[in-house]
Amino acid sequence: ASDVxxxxxxxTRSLRVWESAAPTPPPEAATYHADPRIAEAQAGIDTMERxxxxxxxxxxxTATSTAEAIDxxxxxxxxxxxxxxxxxxxxxxxxxxxxxxxxxxFHREVLELVGWQCPPTRWHLKNPPDLFCLQVIEAVYPDVxxxxxxxxxxxxxxxxxxxMATVQEMSCAHIDRxxxxxxxxxxxxxxxxxxxxxxxxxxxxxxxxxxLADLVADPVGTVASVYEAVDWDFTADSEQSVAAWAxxxxxxxxxxxxxxxxxxxxxxxxxxxRFAAYLDRFDLSxxxx
Length: 289
Known about the structure:
Elements: H1 3-6, E1 13-14, H2 17-21, H3 36-51, H4 55-58, H5 70-74, H6 81-85, H7 89-97, H8 101-114, E2 123-124, H9 134-140, E3 146-150, H10 157-168, H11 177-202, E4 207-211, H12 212-217, H13 219-230, H14 236-248, H15 268-274, H16 276-281
Parallel strand pairs: 1-2, 3-4
Helix pairs in contact: 8-9, 10-11, 13-14
């Protein structure tokens, strides 16, 4: 999504995978790009990719990529990530109704720590399960702005299920792949509904909408429009960083990941029906655009 382009802007600070895994001691600007934790985190990623070679096509990750909030929230034992690691439906049900304020408060404290000696101070973050928690996030981060990247769910849920199944099968004796599609359809439908309800109540001022198809077709122009919407300067350095990242990371550079929806009990038309309000609201009824 837009994060993979925006995170390369030298005027913006993003939490990196290696920092997320080991945030203490706080990194220092002078040794930031040579911190030994980078190599340690990359070794773990390399091991995973040797064990599961198809993982790179599913999720292209490096130690210096932008990290989701899963590790930091997991340190408070409040994270959707655990549901992705193993088949734990009772935990997943608890997570949806638990108080996330302590988790995001901890998240902010860690960002303050890791950014203490490493400018810039403007943060760009990503985490899809934030859809469930927008009200809490606004309370913890009063000046937050949300960039919501839109894609037709029926086009992506098979990939989501495939990644989840691949990871869960490393720790579970049996995974019912055919049940994953309906389960994750409902999960993400609830997340989207929660976010839409919150947005309807608080207004659109904090939100910037990006269609994935537009981002893929014109990364520089689309990110420039995001910067304009949030009143950030899209400098020559910003433009160069976005363009360079796009040129170095074309879609499918590690192979296409196109799992069969049938394997996961997914019927695209039924998924579209479940997300009908979302598709209509964000002009996705005719496809990904």
